[in-house]
Specification:
By secondary structure, the chain is mostly beta strands. The chain is 9% helix and 34% strand. Strand 5 and strand 6 form a beta hairpin.
């Protein structure tokens, strides 16, 4: 074979080897997310000698993600798998069209396992799945028949907590079962083994599927039942075993000051005036206190009413039936049922008072400028139920040289009599007529 023909054949073979098979141009784009075809084992199966890995098999090659799975829970696929009951990060591996899951400690006999695959599985075209898949099977234990349902609320905002961690501890064997809440803060955890549970709702800030020491949570004990159990509402807040401490103490207006604490207070507590001591320094003269209330309640009681609207002004919200319909304009479409449901789910809940870490102290007489007051509050109770005494010093700023209240012209001050200061045209002598 001539050298030129040999080189041409080599180039042709190289081009064919490097060729990339793609769909013909002009076809419809692939916008469908990966579809789950099957699981191994099947859900609700009972396999006493189960070994190997749990598999989720899809209809196409899925993306491995940019973060590798190294057993730390930070990998892209590790973030999508919740395995119960275990306290370790499971071994999650990518197998082109499959995702395999296995507990780090291996499968234990006579247990009920629950593997939850969260939304977020993507294909090579970045089409993302939006469905949650749950696989439940046993390694010899009886088939589960218990379901726990409830709502997790972030008490600091009085709103449902989306994607909050739900940790249900089986009291009989101390095995934890976990899931996440949906976008409306609701959860349905099951099927689970029958028995008593300690259910905990957690604001999982670091997204590690584990309750943290400084993460807001709330817990309830659920009795023994064999059917669907309504857990109720879990109002999460950061628990602290230490009493509340003063963070700042500042003047709010001429007769009130705001005390800010390092943690939320018990919203049901109302401090008696006998538990408050306010003294004017340096001679410790007692100062009479009018009220001590949580800031939300003080604001609602002392909120200034807005000025009444001008009834003569034209109300732009009322449609003018006499006006002509301008072309090109149309009525705003009503929100869809899903949008209304999301709006309803995100509304603040009112069956518990809002949390606050501030108290407002109001006095009878106005503060003295350029003075200091010593404040003591006895028996302040945090939201965790821990009581303690707090002290602080309130510093009143100096009176400004150009006080706006004094510099402002008093509209009630009587004006000068124009008849006395000016020349009265009626007192002028009339000119004689010629």
């Amino acid at each position: 074979m001539p050298l030129k023909s040999a080189l041409s054949a080599l180039v042709l073979c190289s081009a064919l080897a490097c060729a990339k098979i793609e769909p013909p141009p002009g076809g419809p784009p692939d916008i469908a997310p990966p579809r789950l075809l099957s699981t191994r084992p099947e859900s609700t199966a009972r396999i006493a000698d189960f070994s190997g890995s749990v598999e989720f098999r899809f209809d196409e090659v899925i993306s491995e993600g940019g973060s590798p799975n190294q057993g730390t829970g930070t990998g892209d696929l590790e973030k999508l798998v919740v395995l119960s009951p275990t306290v370790r990060v499971p071994q999650v591996r990518w197998r082109r069209t499959r995702i395999t899951v296995e507990p780090d400690e291996g499968w234990k006999p006579n247990r009920v396992y629950r593997v939850e695959l969260l939304p977020g599985v993507t294909d090579l075209r970045r089409n993302r799945s939006k469905e949650t898949r749950v696989l439940t099977f046993t390694t010899g234990a009886p088939l589960p028949d218990r379901t726990l349902e409830g709502l997790v609320v972030d008490w600091t905002t009085n709103r449902p907590a989306a994607l909050a961690l739900v940790d249900a501890l089986h009291v009989a064997d101390s095995l934890p079962y976990r899931t996440l809440t949906d976008s409306s803060g609701r959860f349905s955890l099951g099927p689970l083994p029958s028995g008593e549970y300690l259910v905990k709702g957690v604001i999982d800030e670091n997204h590690d599927f584990r309750p943290g020491d400084r993460e807001a949570f709330d817990s309830l004990r659920v009795g023994t039942r064999t059917s669907t159990t309504a857990v109720g509402q879990l109002w999460t807040f950061v628990h602290d075993t230490a009493p509340a401490r003063t963070r700042t103490l500042a003047v709010a207006d001429s007769v009130s000051a705001t005390v800010e604490f390092n943690q939320p207070l018990d919203p049901r507590q109302r401090l008696a005036l006998s538990a408050v001591s306010l003294r004017l320094l340096p001679d410790s003269t007692p100062v009479k206190v009018a009220s001590v209330l949580p800031k939300p309640i003080d604001d609602s009681l002392n909120r200034r009413t807005a000025a009444a609207p001008d009834t003569a002004a034209r109300d732009t919200t009322v449609r003018d039936s006499t006006a002509r319909e301008r072309p090109g304009l149309r009525e705003v479409e009503a929100p869809s049922a899903d949008a209304r449901a999301r709006e309803e789910a995100n509304k603040p809940l009112t069956n518990r008072p809002p949390l606050s870490n501030q108290l407002v102290v109001r006095v009878v007489a106005p503060w003295k400028p350029d003075a200091k007051y010593a404040l003591e509050l006895r028996g302040v109770r945090s939201v965790s139920g821990v009581s303690g005494d707090v002290t602080g010093v309130l510093t009143i700023p100096k009176r400004e040289q150009t006080d706006s209240l004094r510099a402002r012209k008093d509209s009630l001050r009587p004006r000068s009599d124009s008849l006395r200061t000016g020349k009265d045209s009626l007192t002028k002598p009339l000119k004689k007529q010629p």
